[in-house]
Amino acid sequence: MIESELVASGSVNGVLFGKHYNRSIRAHKIIYEAMERLRFQAFEKSLPTTENSPLHAIGISVQEDSEREMFVDICTSNIVTDAKTKYELFIKKRSKENPLFAFWSKYIDMVQLLLLYIRTTRTSDWTLHLSSLRSMIPWFFATDRVNYSRYAPCYWLEMMCLEETHPYVAANIEDNWTVQRQEGYAFSGVACDQTIEQTLNRLEFPHI
């Protein structure tokens, strides 16, 4: 990361341990995209020419569709669906054959999940929030994150049972669990606890 000038030498520890949030997210996004590109290139090389050509045609179609008018139709086409299935099988096969490939594939999965979780907050999507959190829980156990693995399942179960335990909260939480910082812009929601830390706590404890 230092040689590629992605992260300064003095910021490496902060990025790796998540202390510098924005820098960490940026670094993970760039590494994630690079690894995903390399993995997909390996997949393309494994395909015969007859199957590779349609993928290139799809790529050209996406590039030409600058207004994204046909994006959904392209992504749901039979060619893309078949390619996705073959890509998933390729990943499973190579992961069994190559431990390093499996390692970076797991990293890609984790960053995808992280970005999905960020999206839930930015878009204030409560259902997606619970779904992405549920997908995170096994990783907390796998990476030995004791506190997260202890409390995340409890939190998830409590939230899933809100309709029975607290019907009023369940009916209103979808629109009130985040704070919209900029009304004129989409994708700008912030979690309530983060908002408190950035506003009230700073006013009360300015030296922190």
Unreliable runs: none
Arrangement of strands in the largest sheet? 1-2
Strand content: under 5%
Distance between the termini: 30 Å
Structure annotation, total helices: 12
What would the average pLDDT be, to the nearest integer? 85
Biggest pleated-sheet summary: 2 strands, antiparallel
Strand runs, count: 2
Please provide the ordered H/E string of secondary-structure elements.
HHHHHHHHHHEEHH
Structural category is mainly alpha
**Tertiary shape:** globular
Helix content: over 70%
CA-based gyration radius: 21 Å
Describe the structure.
By secondary structure, this protein is mainly alpha-helical. It has a domain at 1-107. The protein has 12 helices and 2 strands; from the N terminus they run H-H-H-H-H-H-H-H-H-H-E-E-H-H. It has helices at residues 12-16, 21-46, 49-64, 71-75, 78-97, 99-122, 126-142, 146-160, 162-165, 167-172, 192-198, 200-204; strands at residues 178-180, 189-191. Strands 1-2 form a two-stranded antiparallel sheet. A hairpin with an 8-residue loop joins strand 1 (178-180) and strand 2. Helix 6 (99-122) runs antiparallel to helix 7 and helix 7 packs antiparallel against helix 8 (146-160). The two termini are 30 Å apart.
